[in-house]
Amino acid sequence: MLKIGVFGVGHLGKFHLNNWKExxxxxxxxxxxxxxxxxxxxxEKYQLPRFPDPGDLINACDAIDIVAPTNFHFELCxxxxxxxxxxxxxxxxxxxxxxxxxxxxxAQESNIKLQVGHVERFNPAFLALKNTELNPMFIEVHRLAQxxxxxxxxxxxxxxxxxxxxxxxxxxxxxxxxxxxxxVAVMTDTPDIANVRIEFDNGCVANLTSSRISMKRMRKMxxxxxxxxxxxDFLNKKTEIIRQKEERDVxxxxxxxxxxxxxxxxxxxxxxxxxxxxxxxxxxxxxxxIINNTKTIVSEIDGLMAMDVAHQILKKxxxxxxxx
Length: 324
Prior knowledge:
The protein is α/β, with parallel strands linked by helices. It folds into two domains: 2-119 and 278-297, Rossmann fold (3-Layer(aba) Sandwich), CATH 3.40.50.720; 122-274 and 309-319, 2-Layer Sandwich (Dihydrodipicolinate Reductase, domain 2). The chain is 33% helix and 29% strand. The chain has nine helices and 14 strands. The chain has helices spanning 11-20, 36-46, 54-60, 73-82, 97-109, 124-127, 156-171, 278-292, 300-319; strands spanning 2-7, 26-32, 63-66, 86-90, 114-117, 138-144, 176-184, 193-200, 205-211, 218-225, 228-233, 238-244, 253-259, 262-269. A hairpin with an 8-residue loop joins strand 7 (176-184) and strand 8. Helix 5 packs antiparallel against helix 9. It is globular, with a radius of gyration of 21 Å.
């Protein structure tokens, strides 16, 4: 049995605990959380021992799951890696680029698995495209959330937009050529809303808007490529593909449009969206990578790359500050 310890059992940490209890081949040995009220509640509800010292929990585990605030990621990660323990750490990988680079170096020098919690990679709406060739030349993203004090220790870029940055970097296999960005702090001391344009070496352009002060929630990504328009609704778990109809397109809704080159028939397809619990799926894949000695799906390099782009965006916003 793979022995797991969880660091941080707040709102998201409880979701992790619930899912670990259902994952075959793993055993929850305990948790660490400095908040006495939260810790007592969790210990009683889950009948799980609270470890008063982080080092003791690390020593008792084969792998640790870090769901603590970002400023604790580096210390916990590096302590675990130096002990030869596997690490799952929530996004972003670390608080600073220097910390992230040190963790990547440590992980690659050791014989451990490290996975970063970019959970949208496991969203059913995105998984529905696993057999679809993605080669977008224009991407548009809106990720809007209502204000919640939880998570505001970092900017909206590192809190929300980083999900989409990671997804885009996993799709667009090209270097970043240029970034332009603007943002404003409304409710906190860091940007709460931001708009970003990322230009890639292969000509792809991505426009991203993220807000944590919106009246409604939205998590949509639209991909435009030579042969198709692809819509991904991460919030409502829906996926849509519109493209020129082919012989293989049967039992799909189709309609004709007139173009300068004559009539074209378009087909609308809705790929089967799997019934998947994204958090459980990412934790299952992490434990599977350890047990089967395979690569993690979202590696430390992926986490570093997403952070690098996010920090470039923050630097651009800092140079284009909107004064309240």
